[in-house]
Design brief:
- The complex is a heterodimer of chains A (614) and B (135).
- Chain A has 614 residues and is an alpha/beta fold.
- In chain A, strands 9-8-7-6-5-13-12-11-10 form a nine-stranded parallel beta sheet. In chain A, strands 1-2 form a two-stranded antiparallel sheet. Chain A has a two-stranded antiparallel sheet with strand order 3-4.
- In chain A, α6 runs parallel beside α8, α14 runs parallel beside α16 and α14 crosses α18.
- Chain B is built from five helices and five strands; from the N terminus they run βαβαβαβαβα.
- The mean pLDDT of chain B is 92.
- The chains are: A alpha/beta (614), B alpha/beta (135).
């Protein structure tokens, strides 16, 4: 018999709930079940329901005992609570009565891992290897990055996530005047297929996952990656990894947009439709909530804005008569996982999995189990790390990683302890991988799926979080959805308010921050080794791209670019998918700047308007 | 000449850096302190920033950088303003490695604020150093 942890006093119904009898009896009563292979969805109105988690009489006994305990033991006769960052009133002590009052229904609200609504996770089994680590990396040149990729994989990571320099992210070649001063600075400069060949020279693609942090020019990066795989004889079907390719958040928090939102959405859907069919293990869109959190958004706002963006992509796809099950399995997520607000983070993850599954099922009628599952990469916010007493950052990453693993993330992306000084050093890179290993292997926390389920506090908090997210998401949808709310300023204002509060609360000391507003020391500290790109590489990169342009078949390039332009002029429809044309251009060694310029010529560029702020 | 109007600040991102959390927080802090803020947005060139500063007759130009572009681009804004004989102070905020400070100061950047700078300190600095005397 399974039991909720520590519920001695309320065993009757909790035990029945898990027995086979109840399930059989329910089926006999004629409730239909839709079977989808190993995955089951109950129709929402006929789903299994328990009569509540606890026996009413037992709950009354607990309530009375609790009142007595409070009066006798708690100083002042009442424990102090607090209001969480999400605005959820929390108590100091939780009991089964709180779970009972929240209305939690085990099968409806939680279910089992790998079962709808996936609150407890998307997989029915644990992974021996623990949560995969695709380490965030990318140094100035393809050559330097190649060495770093090998070092990171050699240190036991499961793959790499490539950070690009801003020029590459915005579709400029190193010799574009706009790239001056930025070549190779925030990551690697990869401007043509030739650079990809160098960066992955001697790296076996079939053994690793590759994450590509490209958004505005994602289609070019993915086309290059696929062209590289083809060269190496690796079938697309065996490629693992992702491309970030979630462009709507660029207009708010991340800022790397090229085209208008509608053209950007077209590119996103084209890549999704292309990849799900041919590269099913590669996720061409990593929808992000993390960037909102990492500019100060509260957990419910983080999730609501992220979901609203994803809805905008799915709605546009549906409008193009694309079947939801042909694209939804291609989406994975990037969620913030923080040590700060530890339990709210767990509640957020669990609530979001449930909401996402419901959304795909109810709003879009998705049928494939993979369409309903919220796969995610967990990423810690760099803004929690400090320059002050910077070694404390190692502990911060460990606790954030613990949240990610307890929350059932598929990939783990921890920060390096010296990131507040620049791109991570080799030493810091190695330590962050070890921190992940420590959580995966030494703690043993990943041996049980969703191990904190049944916590009176966490279950109560998860349901409250779900309400908060739902409410904000509904507000955005009522106001016309993500794109409308971008244009009318609703989402930017929401994020700006949260962002201001985040800073203010730490500056006033309302929120503790060790080394900054508590236990601060006057001593300046700095790590011994800090990586900084060599400014001389700009010239080297300019020469490299110019050499590519000299050596390639320029007739083929010209034709590929003009075909791409012609295709971009056609309406965004299933049959006008731009991916094949971009792949042909990259295979001809057209550069990212040339391909993006071809599209700029047809679509123009997006520019923020200057404004008076009141 | 004394001008009877609130302090007017032009805030802008420069170059390719797209992170705007910091600059929006500063914008809010300055408006809360009674200043007038014009936010030019992202991906602006030094030319656009200098032109807007002159056209809008601002008292301070504030630029935010979370990447490396500040080393080349912020001194360009200073130069463009000085070429037009404008004394408007140019200040920089963001993720600025400490080793960049001497060079930036030498090139005429009036003040540099790091990621942990108190918002009140930015407000006070602007009040003391803005070219307008508030009335």
């Amino acid at each position: 018999m399974q039991r909720l942890a520590g519920t001695e006093a309320c065993n009757t119904n909790a035990n029945n709930l898990f027995s086979d009898n109840l399930i059989e009896r329910d089926f006999e009563s004629g409730n239909p079940e839709i079977s989808l292979g190993t995955f089951r969805i109950m129709k929402s109105d006929t789903r299994l329901r328990s009569d509540g988690m606890y026996d009413e009489k037992e709950i009354e006994v607990i309530r009375k005992a609790y009142a007595k305990w409070q009066a006798e033991k708690v100083p002042g006769g009442k424990e102090e609570g607090y209001v969480s960052d999400s605005g959820i009133p929390c108590k100091a002590v939780y009991t089964p009565a709180d779970v009972h009052d929240s209305g939690l229904d085990y099968l409806k609200d939680l279910g089992f891992p790998g079962d709808y609504p996936f609150t407890r996770g998307i997989s029915a089994s644990t992974s021996k290897k623990g949560t995969a680590q695709l380490v965030y990396t990318g140094r100035a040149t393809p050559e330097e990055s190649n060495a770093q990729f090998k070092a990171i994989i050699g240190a036991g990571a499961d793959g790499v996530t490539i950070a690009f320099d801003l020029a590459t992210q915005l579709g400029y070649d190193p010799d574009n005047p706009k790239a001056a001063g930025e070549v190779g600075r925030t990551g690697v400069s990869l401007s043509s297929l030739r650079d990809w060949e160098i960066a992955f020279d001697g790296v076996e693609l079939q053994n690793i996952g590759v994450g590509i942090v490209q958004n505005a020019a994602a289609i070019v990066a993915m086309a290059s990656f696929f062209a590289l795989a083809k060269q190496k004889g690796v079938p697309l079907s065996s490629l693992r990894g992702y491309c970030q390719n979630d462009v709507l958040k660029e207009y708010t928090t991340r800022g790397n947009y090229i085209y208008s939102p509608s053209h950007s959405i077209r590119l996103g859907i084209d890549t999704l439709a292309y990849c799900v069919e041919r590269a099913p293990q590669f996720h061409p869109v990593q929808a992000c909530t993390a960037h909102f959190a990492h500019s100060g958004a509260t957990p419910p706002h983080e999730v609501a804005v992220g979901l609203a963006n994803c809805i905008a992509y799915f709605d546009a796809a549906v409008e193009r008569q694309i079947n939801i099950d042909d694209i939804a399995p291609g989406v994975e997520w990037l969620l913030a996982c923080e040590y700060y607000g530890f339990f709210e983070q767990l509640a957020k993850i669990r609530a979001m999995r449930k909401i996402y599954a419901g959304l795909l099922k109810e709003r879009y009628g998705a049928k494939k189990p993979e369409s309903l599952m919220l796969r995610f990469r967990a990423v810690q916010g760099g803004m929690y790390l400090t320059r002050q007493q910077y070694l404390t950052n190692i502990a911060r990453t460990a606790l954030a990683g613990l949240v990610a693993v307890l929350g059932g993330s598929q990939q783990l992306s921890l920060r390096a302890y010296d990131e507040q000084f620049g791109l991570p050093s080799d030493e810091a890179d190695a330590y962050r991988i070890r921190v992940g290993h420590l959580i995966n292997y030494e703690t043993g926390v990943s041996k049980v799926i969703d191990p904190l389920a049944g916590s009176y506090f966490l279950e109560s908090l998860t349901l409250e979080m779900e309400k908060k997210i739902d409410s904000e998401l509904n507000t955005i949808l009522e106001k016309g959805g993500a794109v409308k709310c971008l244009e009318n300023g609703y989402i930017p204002s929401l994020l700006a308010r949260d962002g201001f509060n985040w800073v203010k609360d730490r500056q006033t000391g309302k929120v503790p921050w060790i080394g900054v507003n508590m236990f601060a020391s006057d001593e300046e500290e700095k790590p011994v080794r800090v990586y900084r790109a060599n400014p001389a590489i700009e010239k080297q990169r300019i020469e490299a791209v110019q050499e590519v342009r000299r050596k390639r078949d320029n007739v083929r390039v010209k034709k590929a670019l003009s075909d791409l332009k012609a295709m971009a002029q056609l309406p965004a429809r299933k049959e006008n998918n731009l991916m094949p044309a971009v792949i042909e251009a990259t295979e001809a060694y057209a550069t990212i700047g040339e391909i993006c310029d071809a599209l700029r010529e047809v679509w123009g560029e997006f520019q923020e308007i200057g404004q008076r702020v009141f | 000449m004394r001008k009877k109007r609130p302090i007017r600040v032009l805030l802008s991102k420069v170059g390719l850096d797209g992170h705007n959390w910091g600059i929006l927080v500063v914008a809010r802090a300055l408006t809360d302190a009674g200043m007038e803020v014009i936010y030019l947005g992202r991906h602006r060139t030094p030319q656009e920033i200098a032109q807007a500063a002159l056209q809008e007759d601002v008292d301070v130009v504030g630029i935010s950088s979370l990447v490396d572009g500040h080393r080349a681009l912020v001194p360009q804004v200073v130069d463009l303003l000085r070429e037009r004989n404008s004394p408007i102070p140019v200040i920089l905020g963001g993720f600025i490695p400490p080793e960049d400070l001497p060079e930036l100061k030498a090139k005429g950047v009036a003040q540099v604020f790091g990621v942990h700078t108190k918002l009140d300190d930015i407000v006070s600095w602007i009040k003391e150093n803005a070219k307008t005397v508030t009335g």
